[in-house]
Prior knowledge:
The protein is of the alpha+beta class.
Amino acid sequence: MAETKDFLLEIGCEEMPSAPLNHAVVQLGELVRKGLDEAGLAHGKVETHQTPRRLVAYVHDVALATEELNEVKRGPAASIAFDANGAPTKAAQGFARKFGVDASQLARRVDSDGREYVFAEKHVDARPATPILSTLSEQVIGSIEWPNYRSQRWGSEHQTFVRPIRWICALLGSDVVPASYADVTSAGTTRGHRVLGAGDHAVKSPAAYADVLRENGVLLEDERRATILEGIHQVEAERPGCRVDTPKRTLDEVVNLCEWPTVLVGTFDEEFLKVPHEIICESMLSNQRYFPVYDAEGNLTREFVVVSNADPKVSATVVDGNERVVRARLDDAKFFYEEDLKVPMDEFVERLGTVVFQEKLGTVRQKVTRMEVLSEAVAKAAGADERTCGLAKRAAHLAKADLVSQAVVEFTNQQGVMGGYYAKAAGEDQEVCDAIREHYRPRFAGDELPSGIVGKCVAIADKLDTVCGIFAIDEPPTGSSDPFAVRRAAIGMIAMLRTLPAVHLLPLIELALASYAERGIEFDAQKVASSVAAFFQGRLAAIAKDEGIAPDAIEAVGAVGVIDPDEFVRRAAALDRARSESPELFEDLATAYARAAHLANASLGTNVDSSVLGDAEKALLAACEEGEKAVSAALAAGDFDAACEALAGLRGPIDRFFTDVLVMDPDPTVRDNRLRLLNRFAGVFGDVADIGALSKRK
């Protein structure tokens, strides 16, 4: 086995932005791994690490040289590779070029099949690891991308990085790997914490690297995270019942903001607790990366957790400084909130006339007007009383009001939430307040739905208006673009409509499009409605598949134009169950349906002359009549299992029909009557599903 050593590459620089660090360290690992593989240098596991001031790649068991290789590859037949004069043809030249040799170097010999071919042979000498690692190190540093962050130049060179590089530590075992980037040359040293371990520190080998860092005030990311969480757990233990809110995104950022973390607790003034806790917490989490502390009842307390990267000896000074900072930020939040309370919500609504929803679709004020119509329609369709319908319309009127409030302009994530507070302060009905607060839900897969019927009505109206508007201007989402989150809106609507089975989607789509048409937006209403319906059907199919329903059962239901979410999923599930319980019956029935549908002629209608029917035909007609009644009753009751059972009763009569009857009789009167009977048979299925779809995947 070839001798191996560990390889270490550390890129040391000024403090890097925390947000993209996790992405950068992933790139680092991929670039190093790919570079080693392409160079043919054997290696073991590739580890990566990061701190605010360094990116690190640690590669275990790197071979000290590539393997010596003798490559032989067979090319085209000799008769093709050389012309009559023995000169290489384009085929031989192309083969040689692809293999990296000259055509004159190609050899001719007979292979095991008795035919003569040309062969390319190439000897690749072993190469030492160090020059490969030198080149790789320089290429990797220059290849790391920093989306949304402008790279910088320093010194006299033109190379760039997100922050100026100050040192490079590159080691293969105990030996320094020569590498340079910009004005920085590699060495066998690292740098510790700016205060706790200032200066250069020798690294004898990659294995000693983590210990050298630790001794000089730097912990790698897993240790930093563990230290922070341990400190937070201690804070909670000292305050029984309390909980420190540590959102993953913020925690990840904080881990990347420090090298030697110290968990501290600060406080802010009591007066700020009168301000909605959502903007207080957003200010602390987003602006200062402080973690709020809640009491046992879930109420925000005056305390917050801050993670310091300073010398623990100056913790008191750090706490005091952060308390001053948070006081200033919370003063702003308090001012915005108090100023907003002075403005009537209806005035905010009128100001929405200056806010563009979408260039072609008008303002948010116009959107609000459409939402009022839609939310009231949803409430009526859901069977709500007159009072609830009125509340839904009022909530829709006020839903977007907070978009022009000072608090939401500053804290954009709190749209809806602040509107709920302002509505409550204005004396609006609690259902209206809750609906305003919740109408953006669900914001992502698995998110909570609005808690009440009013909130669901407004949320459906908001999302449907967006979906229909985007399709009306012919800018539907593409594979790479969905700026108005239309897919997410549709999925959210589906989740809510499944809890409101009485609400039918197609009339709402038509109503939403009619509102846009009234504004003078030109589009083919029927075509757009069909596109929107198909869009929802696609989302429904994906949801049904995720719930374990067979694709062909989903296709069968989709083929008859069902788009109401609850009905779609229940129909598909019922059909899938029926087919699973009686697979042979439904496969035979699907085949019979497909045959009947192929022969049927819709132009002939379904009026069958029973006087000219034979026994098999009469039996099928009677079965169709009974099936129509049973299916109709089952669908009216929403009992899709019963509807599928009714279809199953047609299997025997249709089998007998096709066995005993010649459909395409020479007598046109008899033939057309039999075709009308098949139309009648296919029609029984039409309101349930395209059963023929079940026969397509056998």
